[in-house]
Amino acid sequence: MTTTTKFKSWRVQEQGGEYTGSEQTVSTSDLPANEVLIKVSHSSLNYKDALSASGNKGVTRNFPHTPGIDAAGEVIESASGEPVVGSKVIVTGYDLGMNTDGGFGEYVRVPASWCVALPQGWNGRTAMIYGTAGLTAGLCVQKLLQMGASPEQGKVAVSGASGAVGSVAVELLSKLGFDVVAISGKQDHADELKALGASEVVGREALAAEKKPMLKPVFANAVDTVGGQPLAELLKQIQPGGSVSCCGLVAGPQLETTVLPFILRGVNLLGVDSVEIPLADKAAVWKKFAGEWACPKTEASARDIGRGQLDGALRAFLKGESSGKIVLDHA
Ligand code: NDP
């Protein structure tokens, strides 16, 4: 039976081209007519949420809107019977928080095909410490491993290292035995990055624009979370046969490169999507993070915020000032 419940949601309104988020009381009857109603305990903050909240029409077309591309919580209604009522689930990506009201509200209603069972031993908060950013870091590392990356080959670079994706990539790669070079614009975060497992922290100038089409190959492999010019420079510095997992665009969506890294050094540029991939692929990475890929330092250092702190936290993402993992706790 479908019941109607009033709940709190952080809604973004559009007025005269300005976008403002605030706490509103809404109703489950306002949610889209999907199969599974979830009471969200926690969400996670991502760069894409900041884009949605600031009116980026490539992410969210219509307002008012509740951002939050991640949600973890308990199934309250399930029209198709799966997942079962009372079970705990994770929803990340697909259209959640884009044009489907997302995890910054206390309830979401989503298709059953978006729901992954919470891994054994996890609660909603643990899942949301990783969130889409952690999932993406895991997929980036998985792609490098699938290409045969191994610690013996040499250093692995992580750009945007202090960010939500980058910080998990640093810890996971270090845990897997890689010699990790964190590339970060935040000198004051060097100690945190070393604590996560980076052996070296270098500034963003390591990827500053150079006229030369090729540079000394210093990295065996890399995880790039920033895109744009820094990615083009990174490709010039990869050893023969090495790979770069590419997932982000904070430094811009354009990639101006020559083919030389590819045809002279056999470098591989690996695209990573965490949003539209099959649910089973997401579930496989969650299972790893709940087991042999657990990142205890990331888990211990995650920050919790309430809905009232969302505005400031999202603005920090847009300025490149955010760091580490931030969990939204609806309690
Ligand atoms: P964050 O803002 O947390 O991290 C990005 C980091 O990049 C910043 O912390 C900063 O790190 C660095 N940075 C910011 N601006 C610039 C700049 N102009 N030039 C160079 N470096 C910069 O974002 P997320 O980690 O959540 O996301 C990173 C990217 O990955 C985003 O573009 C996001 O959209 C994308 N993404 C893609 C997914 C996919 O499925 N493909 C899924 C999840 C995220 P520092 O100061 O340490 O240099």
UniProtKB/TrEMBL annotation:
InterPro entries: Acrylyl-CoA_reductase_AcuI, ADH-like_C, ADH-like_N, ER, GroES-like_sf, NAD(P)-bd_dom_sf, Zn-ADH-like_protein. It holds the Pfam family ADH_zinc_N. Residues 1-26 are annotated as: Disordered. It comes from the Bacteria. GO terms for molecular function: acryloyl-CoA reductase (NADPH) activity. Residues 21-328 form the Enoyl reductase (ER) domain. NCBIfam families: oxido_YhdH (TIGR02823). This is YhdH/YhfP family quinone oxidoreductase.
